[in-house]
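In response to a reviewer's request, we include the raw inputs and outputs for one of the modeled complexes. The two entities were modeled together in a single run.
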Amino acid sequence: MTVVKMDNVTKDYRVGRMSVPALRGISLAVERGEFTAIAGPSGSGKTTMLNLFGCLDKPSGGKLFIEDHDIITLKPDQLADVRNQHIGFIFQSFNLIPVLSAYENVEFPLLLLKQDGPGIRRKKVMALLEQVGIAELAGRRPSEMSGGQQQRVAIARALVKEPDYVLADEPTANIDSKTGEEILDLMRKMNDTLKTTFIFSTHDPKVMQHARRLIRVRDGKIESDTVQNGGTA
Amino acid sequence: MFKLALRNVLRNKRRSFLTGLSIAFAVMIVIFFWTFVLGILNDMFNSYVTISAGHVRVLNSDYLRRETMMPLTASISGYRPLVDSIAKEKGVKLASGRIKFGVLMDVKGKNKPIIGVGIDPAREDAALGLSKKIVSGSFITSGTRETNVGIGLARELGLKTGDTLTVITQTAQGSLSGMNLRVAGIFNMNVASIDRRVFFLPLDQAQYLLDMDGRVTEIYVLLNDPDDAMKAASQIKATLPPGLTASPWEDNGFLYFMNTIAKGMYETLYAFVLILASFTILNTMFMAVMERTREIGMMKALGMREGAIRRLVVMESAILGTISSFIGAAAGTLLAYYISVVGLDYSGLFEKMGNVEVPLPNIYHGLFKWETVLVGFVLGVLMSVAAAIFPALRAAAMEPTEALRNQ
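The model returned the following structure tokens for the whole complex.
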């Protein structure tokens, strides 16, 4: 089942009077359960692709569908609802809310979703903190945790609302390589056990090796799209 | 969301403390000064009304035109039935005949103009409690050649209770007349211009001295509610014989200025104090929003709607504003209560200023009202919320991609 689909998508940015193309006609579909890396050098368009997948931006041309939603037609609050209901985010620099504890940071998307009562929320949050291995740090604030621990909280936050897919923008860029490995292993484990779709960007060859599908982009175009590590196309 | 807003307020404790301090200070200042000014205006109004103006005065139209000359010829004859009928009007607390006349006194070789006021002692004391203002001796009684002298005037003339005040003046017919009055008591109205310029004597003695038997210069009317003066004046006017008129206190330019324009001026001033304080909140909230640009971008990415972000920012400011306004209101209440009960003594200053023509009290007392405290508190909170609206709109309008790129 397709969770996100791009059809001849272009994206231009205005720099002064100039229009600079960031994506030049991308077409691809991501199926449920994929563990996909979008790889490429700086300026290749991978972050732009992630922003479009994340409904944080709209394409300049072409079509973008998330589940059944035609993104181009949606208003800001409708886009916010799509993000809230369908997409999980993991950021390069974790982006946890510093005044909230690990537990409260993971609970935050559930509060925005307004579907579960306090009891169910507590069960869901604690289950995920267990799964990412930091249940004992639930009461700590981000400033009291290491980078790796913070990224684990961010993964739990992305997964807690059981999204259709999780977007991760260079999730290991701000942590050391050993912790980076652990984070990728954790993401893979979540992909295996929860069947959550992961789409992440990277320019690190070691990280690319972990992907089951590797999409290379260069100059705003897809250079290659390959299946590896037993993935399915 | 409340928990998040509260923690955001506490995130930068020093900045929140300083902002809170400026809000609290502004609220305190507004409550304190408003109490102070209300007290002064109220004192001035009451003193001036009590001694000179009344809420409504019935006068000879000719007298009203030449009031500064205090023309005794333009008087009201056969006033008693009029006083009785006015006293029966709805909302009238007191109606009483008075004679006001000017006297030149020799004070240390200089001529000093002072004002004699003939009153019906028993009737006026019952309504105004004038006898309570006597600080030494006793209140005057009808049929006796007695006077009550202001404390400042007594000091200047070297008079004490039991002494004799010799008054020489012109009668209504223009001939000279004199009378020795025993100083029965000395009053302190706590208003320099009255205490230093006025003496009271029984109305019958004033009529005798001025050759005005059966006549008065005005009928002094006090109402239950000063705000009814305009209506009462027109009602009374309708019952008066030709040649007489009724003047409400609003026609007195000085009183009108004090009660309406001065209050308006002070209210404008308070608005400025609050607006100035609101700039610190505006600045704080802007800084808070700018510092948290990436965090706001992340919240939007997680699906927080623009309305929710606006509410979050406004709520932070409202929390800070409510706590600070409460502290400011508590401090303002203490100060306002102090100024109302103890007051500030300015009598020394007025001694140095010499003849003060404005009826300012020697001791300023505030007029404490819970209403003032409530208004100060509510204004503080509203100002905090209003100042956060612009930063809140700015936060909600941020593009998530740009906000997330912010370092």
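As requested, we also summarize the result in words. The mean pLDDT of chain A is 88. The two ends of chain A are 12 Å apart (CA to CA).
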